[in-house]
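ARCHIVE CARD
Drawer: 12
Card no.: 0347
Subject: one protein chain, sequence and derived structure
Cross-reference: see card 0346
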Amino acid sequence: MSSSPRLRSLNIDNINPHVKAAKYAVRGELAARAEKYRVRLAKGYPPSPPEETLPFDKVISANIGNPQQLDQKPITFFRQVLSILEYPGLLENEEALKSAFGYKDDVIARAKWLLDEVRSVGAYSVSQGVPGVRESVAKFIERRDGYSADPAQVFLSAGASSGVNTLMHIICSKPETGILVPIPQYPLYTATLSLLNARCVPYYLDEGKAWGTDIGAIKDALKKAKSEGTDVRAIVVINPGNPTGASLTAEDVRSVLEFAAEEKLVVLGDEVYQTNVFKGKFNSFKKGLRDLQKEVPGKYDNIELASLHSISKGMVGECGHRGGYFELIGFDSAVEAEIVKFVSISLCAPVIGQCLVEMMVNPPKEGEPSYPLYKQEYDGIFHGLQERATALYNAFSEMEGVSCEEPQGSMYLFPTITIPKKGIEQGKKEGRSPDEFYASRLLDATGVCVVPGSGFGQKPGTLHFRTTFLAPGTEWVGRITKFHEKFMDEFRD
């Protein structure tokens, strides 16, 4: 009996099953189709059979928080400093930089200081990150929260995602390890847990209370997980929320910390949207913890908190440069040493990203030459995001069968949608869940790519989708409104 020779070592049946099990809806099938549409439109000539002319002239990638892809302009101060870091030879003629290109004295001074710290952005840094940059991060945290921060507890990372990956590798010691994750959630968390063959312990946010944290729901989720043999070790809190946009109150933060202390859970505070707050104010977990420790000495001293931030969001939006940090509080020194070892395996975070972290946490200050333009650019981006969020919210409020919480922060809205029975049945025929069917039809009709709510998790019996409000203008909002009206008419019961 003969058999054909094996041509390759790898096939879909013998690769890591945990990779196959992981799901990341933000860059899933709809995002891939949107990119194909973008390529077709870029060709600029009529389609060849069997392709048909697309009913739109531009793709709107509202599926991912990628600001500069959607025309958010980089901050001038940041990019001018980066240009010198990438090519220090520019410093040979400082007067030309000033007179011909408008570089200010503080741009040149910051570039020189950073070059003294890193020597070259083409060289590795120490694995935990450039010491001078970590000092700037610690000073920023101290200014923000009113409590001291130790540069030795700050780790620079390749975006917050890299920090999450590091921390979850440390926490997840066995298949029975579980981490409490908010639902809906950013799929980084469930995907990483899948890769680590660990357990996601979902707790539902309260949509009726503007997607607030419900301690009762968290306690129920923990009790259920323990009854199933899960060793729950940590809780993830995303503040402001992704995909919900909710911004937690100081009381919400406090209640999570009190719960974590009672149950001895590590708190992972994902705070990458901390400057994207339109309603209320940002309340950090670091400040919440220090306030508790001050009020009740000794009781909360052993809480382990890791809070994360990134250059990818906010008014910085430098996703492609991959920079971020996490700060550790209350961790055992031996565990910290293992974290240092883990990050050392990847050598270091991108040094140019580390430099951007320094500028994010230490931007031009009032009275410095670059401040007026920095303030103008920063405020312009912030108000533009707020205006588009409001326009999108108003549009959703007028759409049949759609409800949406008022935008509070981050870069997203997560509206609830009601799909007629005929639409649900048609989706089943096409092998899609109702929200996937809706998002698929929306993309094909308008070029607007959103993410079905099922990609983030949602309560059974509810349907949502997530959209960013990063794309410039409001014309694309009108596309969604017109599509929804036609969709409802087509499938009306």
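Annotation on reverse: The first helix runs from residue 17 to 21. The mean pLDDT is 89.
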